[in-house]
Design goal:
Chain lengths: 302, 195
């Protein structure tokens, strides 16, 4: 039995494919430019294309076809040799990130686990974040985190713990390994659990992106993404198509040639598309008439 | 057109699939038990959450969806401070010809001691029926990142089929020196090809 608590996500397409055959004389776009009718991929899959294109969806189509949008992005054209087997697909990337919602101010935030700690040996209080070692900066002894609580970065709200014997909220609590949380003031006399008042609650944040993939099997694969999220994917290059189109270098010591000039680049380096960029034995990419043209590098030299 | 996708969780005997907007690993068979049934840090050994089934629900007007994969941030065990040997487990198959995921027909409701621990996925008696007989043990989900995603479902769906993919089956394993309290936020990703 299915229970729908939402229709799901449907990405908006900003690119459509087009197949060009017979020395450039026949073109088969995904959407008919007059009617908006979609051509299924199955009808063109058997063709022997000279070019495959990811081309921005024109306004005439986005006005007719739901789920499409017109954006100022360049066409990306893959030039194929007769023996090339193209790699061509859209790639859906559905990301679910857990987050917290503050019940006091409504802020939605992502928490990395940072918290305030007190050294059990010297009593020094300090703020700890996950990129730090769990060592007291004062006495240099290891510190153990007994309990962590998410705190709203906007208003400072966090879960409160109430003792109905003391009739007050407790700033400090006794957290036991079996999930008990007891009143430290009642503990010597009458072990007593605290009542939790939730101020920060978890929820999910979903994001669905469409990436556009092109390449030649056995030679290269380029994944076109709208924004750089610094993902590392060892089977493809990453081309960012929003804003000023550019390649993001994924690995240190990446060797490429720009207009014939050799360069060794580091992870995170940006290469703006425009001049001829060659990834030896993989592809050559350049901008021509405002379009990005890609073809396999068959020169065979490094 | 493109496929409409959602992440659903399966619970109960039916099972019932819910498009979840909230959810957490817990010690009962529920996608969101509120503040109840938290995972428990054991005094020794390991405790487990009840295992979870998550799938990609596909619908709408589309041509073909295929090659469904799943991955994590690669740092779940450390971010969630699950202790020595603690981790997020994900089920894998010895011969994943059609993927490591669990086919809908092989769904197995999570069981355990409510409020304390779920049964381990590979428990010889109470483990997940689709996986407990495998040679391969449930893997550390931190091994599956964007560069090396888990192949969940290698079937092809469409055109225009309303379908649920194979399930990714996961379970939290908690060590005795795990940190209690709220857990830092994490990201899980389904990735699929479509044309």
């Amino acid at each position: 039995m299915d229970v729908d608590q939402g229709p799901g996500l449907t990405p908006k397409l900003v690119y459509m494919w087009a197949v060009v055959t017979e020395d450039g004389n026949s073109a088969y776009p995904q959407y008919n430019l007059d009617t908006g009718e979609e051509t299924s991929w199955a009808k063109v899959a058997g063709l022997k294309p000279d070019y495959l294109m990811w081309t921005p969806i024109p306004r005439e189509i986005s006005h007719k076809v739901a789920g499409t949008a017109t954006l100022p992005v360049p066409s990306v054209i893959l030039e194929l040799n007769p023996d090339d087997i193209p790699v061509w697909t859209r790639r859906g990337v559905y990301t679910r990130t857990t987050s917290y919602v503050c019940q006091d101010c409504g802020a939605v935030f992502v928490w990395d686990g940072n918290c305030d700690l007190e050294c059990g040996l010297c009593g020094h209080e300090f703020h700890w974040s996950p990129d730090m070692e769990l060592i007291c900066p004062e006495c240099k002894n290891p510190v153990k985190i007994v309990y962590r609580a998410a705190v709203c970065p906007k208003c400072g709200a966090k879960d409160l713990w109430y003792c109905d014997v003391c009739k007050e909220f407790k700033a400090t609590q006794l957290h036991l390994a079996n999930n008990e949380c007891r009143c430290p003031d009642c503990e010597p006399i009458d072990k007593h659990g605290l009542i939790r008042h939730k101020k920060v609650k978890p929820q999910n944040m979903d994001l669905l992106e469409t990436h556009y993939v092109l390449g030649v099997r056995g030679q290269f694969e380029i994944e076109m993404v709208p924004f750089d999220k610094s993902l590392v994917d060892d089977i493809s290059w990453k081309l960012v198509f929003m804003g000023r189109p550019h390649l993001v270098i994924e690995y240190d010591d990446t060797y490429i040639e720009i207009n014939g000039k050799p360069l060794t680049l580091a992870k995170g380096d940006i290469v703006t598309l425009g001049p001829e960029i060659r990834a030896p034995n993989e592809f050559v990419i350049k901008v021509q008439d405002g379009n990005i043209r890609v073809k396999g590098d068959d020169d065979g030299t490094d | 057109m493109t496929a409409t996708v959602a992440i659903k969780e399966a619970n109960g005997a039916g099972p019932t699939l819910s498009t979840i907007t909230q959810g957490r690993y817990c010690t009962t068979d529920s996608y969101n038990p509120g503040d109840n049934y938290p995972c428990v840090v054991p005094s020794s050994g390991f405790n487990y959450s009840y295992w979870k089934h998550h799938c990609l629900a596909i619908s709408g007007t589309y041509t073909r969806v295929s090659n469904i994969r799943w991955y994590t941030s690669g740092a779940v065990a450390s971010n969630w401070a699950l202790g020595t040997g603690g981790m997020l487990l994900v089920c894998i198959r010895d011969s994943p010809t059609l993927g490591n995921g669990c086919p809908p027909g092989n769904y197995d409701q999570a069981t355990g001691v409510a409020g304390t621990t779920g049964h381990y996925l590979k428990d010889a008696t109470n483990g997940h029926n689709y996986y407990k007989g495998q040679t391969a043990n449930p893997a550390n989900a931190d091994n599956y990142v964007s560069a090396t995603p888990l192949e969940v479902d290698l079937n092809t769906y469409g055109p225009n089929a309303t379908a649920n993919s194979y399930y990714v089956v996961t379970q939290v394993k908690i060590a005795s020196n795990a940190t209690q309290g709220d857990k830092p936020n994490e990201t899980f990703t389904f990735r699929y090809d479509e044309i």
